[in-house]
């Protein structure tokens, strides 16, 4: 089998590294001046050139070319040895599989031996954020007093996980996502040299889909080239599932128009074509995030083809901001949960149903089912890191502030959202101190969950899948959609943690708590519980979903 394109196309010289000029310039200067650091940290998104640049640096410091400006020459014995992976003084360590303190100690012991071939022993530690704390501490000792012949290059995609003590000892370089046009130009060059026929629009599509990671772009090109056909835009769309993003747009369109059937149809067509449910959910999140940016006036940050922009702008404006935020949260939760779900498509269907219901649901007089927002507040903690405002100001919209059925979906016509409140401390005190009633419990459910989450995240995740709350003869009953979830909730001290949280939030003695499964209780009883007006399950049932009973 031929070598994967991205390996074959790993830059061998500084000039071949795309779009990381700020890093390359500094490193080249260091080689020229001979001021070479002993510890470097390369951080940035995956596939943007960190390992590549680390190897270039390793080559350059050991290159035999006479003129430092020519290093790495890519022709001397040392350069060739590095290229072929047989240079003894280049030690690459994957921290993901060598995380223990012993691994680092072993490295430390060996480091004092002089280089066997070159001038420097270079250690590249990839995925360095995976090291254990003890291993980091051991590494730190070495970074504090490295032997003169040693150079460390640490690489990570998650700089925030690197201890400050380590950061402060490294020369830091941040790698950037590679701009779409630069990726497309690079692919064009590859095509010319590899004799691949490709339309520029197809290359642009690949570049866009790879979200700034050159490795992904090269792999996609590789995949398309292997069809042996000329790479046209339509071939690229077919293979890369760009048709899916059309489905995303259609689903959002249907959501805005409250056309459940059309929305479900878009989801199903996408899944039928082989797209993974989680992948689809992620695309929806990515798309909604773009709409949010447009809505907030930062449309220039959105990278979308011109022909899509007008449609995106009109969708962004059709959304009321609270509805857009809620929809983002719902699909974000679906993206996270689909992995563990036994029926991944259901997560998408429910997210769609809820997003439509959020806008359209009339007020139930006495709800016994949790409002969708209460069921999904955990999504707030998993919002993309680039949108901190979302998590901080995300209102927990209680049912009473939801727009009525006939409310137009314009933002100006929306009732104002309640003041932001995600902290349990900020929630209103229980109305009837010392007593347990359903409405108090429901009102404070988000706070209970927040409290539980601090004790044990897994327990809170289980509460997140609880479909309905009831109180029977003073006993709180949590309804789960399956036996499995119910028994998970009953395991360990999940129930105890929840009881204590309820007790402390409501200021009452820890109440009795019981779990039931809708699956087991079956029949009229569970249908009754689940089909309470306004419930998301009810909406899903209305849309044609079936509750599956496992015998
Ligand atoms: N800036 C770049 N210029 C040219 N090619 C690049 C660049 N970045 C990545 N590539 C291509 O992608 C491949 C992988 O890059 P590399 O291993 O350096 O990424 P990385 O940043 O270390 O990613 P990861 O975080 O996943 O380890 C390279 O072999 C090369 O083909
Ligand atoms: Mg790497
Ligand atoms: Zn050389």
How would you describe this structure to a colleague?
- The protein is α/β, with parallel strands linked by helices.
- Among the domains are: 170 residues, P-loop containing nucleotide triphosphate hydrolases (Rossmann fold, 3-Layer(aba) Sandwich), CATH 3.40.50; 61 residues, Helicase, Ruva Protein, domain 3, CATH 1.10.8.60; 141 residues, no CATH class.
- It has 27 helices and eight strands.
- It has a five-stranded parallel β-sheet with strand order 2-3-4-1-5, covered by helices on one side. Strands 6-7-8 form a three-stranded mixed β-sheet.
- A hairpin with a 2-residue loop joins β6 and β7.
- The longest helix has 19 residues.
- The chain is globular, with a radius of gyration of 28 Å.
- The two termini are 48 Å apart.
- About 16% of the residues have low confidence.
- The site of adenosine-5'-triphosphate has 23 residues, from α1, α3 and α10.
List keywords for this structure.
Helicase, Ruva Protein, domain 3; binds zinc ion; binds adenosine-5'-triphosphate; 5-stranded parallel beta sheet; Rossmann fold; 27 helices; 3-stranded mixed beta sheet; alpha/beta; binds magnesium ion; 551 residues
**Beginning-to-end CA distance, first to last residue:** 48 Å
Helix percent reads 40-55%
Give me the count of strands. 8
CATH architecture of the domain at 5-174: 3-Layer(aba) Sandwich
């Amino acid at each position: 089998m031929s070598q994967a394109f991205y390996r074959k196309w790993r830059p061998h010289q500084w000039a071949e590294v795309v779009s990381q000029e700020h890093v390359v310039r500094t490193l080249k200067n260091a080689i020229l001046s001979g001021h070479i650091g002993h510890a470097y940290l390369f951080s940035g998104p995956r596939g943007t050139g960190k390992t590549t640049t680390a190897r270039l640096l390793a080559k350059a410091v050991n290159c035999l070319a006479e003129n430092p400006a020519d290093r790495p020459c890519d022709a001397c014995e040392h350069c060739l040895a590095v290229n072929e992976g047989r240079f003894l003084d280049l030690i690459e360590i994957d921290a993901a599989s060598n995380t223990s303190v012993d691994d680092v100690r072993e490295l430390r012991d060996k480091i004092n031996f002089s280089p066997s071939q070159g001038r420097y022993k270079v250690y590249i530690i990839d995925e360095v954020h995976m090291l254990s704390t003890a291993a980091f501490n051991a590494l730190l000792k070495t970074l504090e007093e490295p032997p003169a012949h040693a150079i460390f290059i640490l690489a990570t995609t998650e700089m925030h996980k690197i201890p400050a003590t380590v950061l402060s000892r490294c020369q830091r370089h941040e790698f950037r996502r590679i701009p779409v046009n630069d990726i497309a130009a690079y692919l064009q060059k590859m095509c010319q040299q590899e004799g691949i026929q490709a339309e520029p629009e197809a290359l642009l599509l690949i570049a866009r889909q790879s979200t700034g990671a050159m490795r992904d772009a090269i792999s996609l090109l590789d995949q398309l080239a292997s069809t042996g056909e000329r790479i046209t835009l339509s071939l690229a769309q077919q293979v890369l599932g760009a048709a899916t993003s059309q489905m995303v747009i259609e689903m959002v369109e249907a959501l805005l128009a409250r056309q459940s059937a059309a929305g479900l149809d878009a989801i199903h067509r996408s899944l039928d074509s082989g797209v993974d449910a989680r992948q689809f959910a992620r695309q929806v999140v990515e798309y909604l995030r773009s709409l949010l940016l447009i809505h907030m006036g930062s449309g220039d940050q959105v990278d979308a083809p011109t022909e899509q922009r007008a449609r995106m702008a009109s969708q962004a404006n059709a959304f009321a901001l609270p509805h857009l935020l809620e929809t983002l949260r719902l699909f974000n939760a679906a993206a996270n949960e689909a992995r563990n779900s036994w029926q991944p498509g259901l997560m998408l269907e429910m997210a769609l149903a809820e997003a439509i219901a959020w806008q359209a649901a009339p007020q139930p007089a006495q709800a016994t089912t949790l409002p969708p927002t209460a069921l999904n507040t955990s999504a707030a903690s998993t919002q993309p890191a680039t949108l901190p405002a979302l998590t901080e100001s995300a209102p927990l919209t209680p049912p009473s502030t939801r727009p009525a059925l006939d409310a137009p979906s314009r933002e100006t016509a929306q009732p104002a959202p309640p003041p932001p409140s995600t902290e349990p401390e900020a929630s209103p005190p229980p109305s009837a101190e010392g007593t347990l009633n359903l409405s108090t419990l429901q009102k404070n459910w988000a706070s209970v969950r927040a409290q539980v989450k601090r004790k044990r995240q897994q327990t809170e995740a289980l509460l997140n899948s609880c479909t309905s709350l009831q109180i029977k003869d003073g006993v709180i009953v949590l309804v789960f959609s399956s036996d499995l979830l119910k028994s998970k909730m009953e395991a360990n001290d999940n129930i105890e943690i929840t009881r204590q949280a309820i007790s402390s939030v409501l200021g009452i003695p820890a109440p009795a708590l019981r779990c039931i499964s809708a699956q087991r209780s079956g029949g009229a009883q569970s249908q009754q519980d689940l089909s309470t007006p306004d419930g998301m399950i009810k909406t899903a049932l209305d849309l044609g979903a079936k509750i599956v009973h496992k015998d």
